Amino acid sequence: MEYMQAPASSSQGNILCCTCGVPIPPNPANMCVACLRTQVDISEGIPKQVTVHFCKQCERYLQPPGTWMQCALESRELLALCLKKLKSSMTRVRLIDAGFLWTEPHSKRIKMKLTVQKEVMNGAILQQVFVVEFVIQSQMCDDCHRVEAKDFWKAVVQVRQKTVHKKTFYYLEQLILKHKLHLNALNIKEIHEGIDFYYGSKQHAQKMVDFLQCTVPCRCKTSQRLISHDIHSNTYNYKSTFSVEIVPVCKDNVVCLSPRLAQSLGNMGQVCVCVRVTSTIHLIDPRTLQIAEVDGNTYWRYPFNSLCNPRQLEEFIVMDMDIIRDQKLGAGAGVRSNKHTLAEVWVQKTSEMDTSQQYHCRTFLGHLLNIGDLVLGYDFANSNINDEFLNKMNPQHVPDVVLIKKSYDRSRRVRRRNWKLQEMSRDREGTDTDDERQYQDFLEDLEEDEALRRNVNIYRDVAKIPVESDTDDDGAPRISLVEMLEELSLSDATGGEGDGMMTD
């Protein structure tokens, strides 16, 4: 405890304390510090021990009346929360400084050192330093209480896609992780053909639905079920269900458009290849390089299906190739792709190398292929495809083979891959044994498509040392170190980054 006063001039003399007679510099109270301490305690009324409620399950602190906050030890957020507990009792003093004193992280004690000032006895300003101890008391928050009661969710978002391949789901998972929309979900359950997201409030579920509608082409239906009704307060308790259906088209699918839709997209061919699925379906005509985008509303107005699934991809070898330089499009044609090159190629199945059977087709992969390269494609000449629009097409306009992508040695690509992706923690039910192959396909798509990985957080895999030799460089696309992020790992015992601790 000490006085706060202006410095005395050199000519000013001392006075005697009115209580004990000790010589002191003049002050408004005419008392020494020891005597003032016996007369006045400016920290009176401020509690020296306060209770703070903490939820063990979600590790959040209660900020009265009903807000739960995530605060790391020694952080500014926790300092503000503790000071609010003392705010009502500190109206008559002026807070000068506040800071934490070190305590053992598991002691369930938080000590705070406070410095306050107050005007006492004839205008003398007294300053005092004291310690307040906050006792952490466990209390389960409402959200965790509903989880433990097994009847916790108020809304569920059911995301479905009726396809064999899960490329769109893997891409969607990375977008959700990047924007941290999975943090509000109480539970995430993976089932056949989709994922269910459970939420404690309808607002969080609606936020997820809005995000999905902006991210992937889809349509949504909403329903709700009455759980209880209080006739006295006229309040209703509903459980809401949002059913989101994503278009059943994935990257590398071959589709057949309706004549009306193909005409509206710039008179492009009906047989197209899906090169990417983002908020729209990106299509390319392998005969003309004409490209178009189909959004969700257009798709549900003029729906079309995938003609083949990835399991039907066959491996071909390029026997001969001729780049087409001057391709003239018809009247009313749309935009052509400047990232692809049109070529005419003769290919032969690797499974039919002992025969003379070859296939002629046009492809949009002229910038990647050379004679002798392996390429994956669909064999339409020997396939029995039942499609409404394909059956009505002129057989001369249906290609024998549609090439999809260049083939590389998968084992080499896995050995050289020094990056990884994060995954959402979820309950898995009824997963397919083919999931690992599909996930590897998605990783290869990220390596091959720079535009696709712009929206994906790619992390450097420090635990994996890529094995590489001179013979491994087969020209396969790779992701540069510039595009990789360092994965954050928090080893702090306090559970996060906090401020520096005060020590006495």
TrEMBL record:
Record GO biological process: protein transport; ribosomal large subunit export from nucleus
Main subcellular location: cytoplasm
Protein name per its UniProtKB record: 60S ribosomal export protein NMD3
Organism lineage string: Eukaryota, Metazoa, Chordata, Craniata, Vertebrata
Family in the record: Belongs to the NMD3 family.
Encoding gene (name): NMD3
Residue intervals of the 60S ribosomal export protein NMD3 SH3 domain: 249-295
GO cellular component: cytoplasm; nucleus
Stretches assigned to the Nmd3 N-terminal domain: 17-246
Domain 60S ribosomal export protein NMD3 OB-fold: 313-406
Subcellular location: Cytoplasm; Nucleus
Function of the protein: Acts as an adapter for the XPO1/CRM1-mediated export of the 60S ribosomal subunit.
